[in-house]
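The protein record passed on below.

***
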Amino acid sequence: MKCIEITPPADIQTCIQLPSSKSICNRALIINALAGSTCRPENLSDCDDTRVMIEALTHMPETIDIMAAGTAMRFLTAYLSVTPGTHVLTGTERMRQRPIKILVDALRSLGAQIEYTENEGYPPLKITGKALEGHSLCLPGNVSSQYISALLMIGPMLAHGLNLELEGEIISRPYINLTLKVMKDFGAKAEWTSDHTLQVAPHPYHPIPYYVESDWSAASYWYEIVALSKHEAVVTLPGLFAQSPQGDAKVAELFEQLGICTQREGNSVTLKKTHPHTDRMEYNFVNQPDLAQTFVVTCAMLGIPFRFSGLQSLKIKETDRMAALIAEMRKLGYVLEESEGSVLEESEGSVLSWNGTRCTPDESPAIDTYEDHRMAMAFAPAALCNGTLRIRNPHVVSKSYPRFWDDLLTAGFHITQL
């Protein structure tokens, strides 16, 4: 299936069972394994990222290929460092271009035995697990939170625990807090001891039954669908916890600016249009980078100028998401600008903005997905404004939301394979 054409329905009233949170799944799977549990957590996602993690932890082959799963690469690098045996950890060509030196250097300073098998600073990695005696680390706070989470999760396994100091501006703090929450669920003693310091005691995990909630990142595309719908749209999403530790639960508050109300009932939410949207949107996505594509497309299609900062991590995701957004939005007739944020505000990082400038759109636009699941899912709802829209290589959604296209069909969209 190399290309599909999406045609939207006139009205949308549907109930969608979202995939479970892959962020929680992958943390729970690593911690569950470190706890020595013989049972898997419940309600695991069937996405690629979680599947490769399950396969790796279940079979532990000599060569572990995590394909395009960046979270699995970072988490397994730390996990294998404290797990007996020697393994080669590798992935897709793009994964072998994504830097991992900061994490490897940190683990080596704790005593880990890790070698680069090809290019210095990049996967594949040859890792020989052993007991680690180191216990103190200092990292820049603006590194990927997945590096920090990977180190925190093995903290209880270290002989003297882990003291982790983060210098400067800390990005993606909600993801660090999510990691601490799951660690504590499994019995770890881990906490912030100051605004920039984390302490993990050498106190082992213990096995527990664990249920994974639905994914707020996946919910963002249904918020977008309701926002872009020209007529009535009511979408119910069960399995989203009101007090969710997921950073992307912020999507509910942010979409209030775009005229979408979130009605909560137990562990379920219903999305409805309620009021006019803002005339302009500004937000720093440093703590929710995975929501950026959703809001770029939504705001532009609604004609809302925006300035979104804190996007520096988008350049090293599955693709350079900044460049991809600029290229694909131009196909729809929108001219986006990339810039650097204020030097006085470190967290501003990279900025993507739209001031209302338009260009001639492609006559029959076909969105390229760049091997990036979020490009496909963020652009698909634009069909509601465009009438129809083509998406190339739509299979990429399997990375986080394999049933996405089936769920669009459930909601009344028509999808044709070309």
Notes: The radius of gyration is 21 Å. The chain has a mean pLDDT of 94. Residues 38 and 207 are 8 Å apart (CA to CA). The longest strand covers residues 85-90.
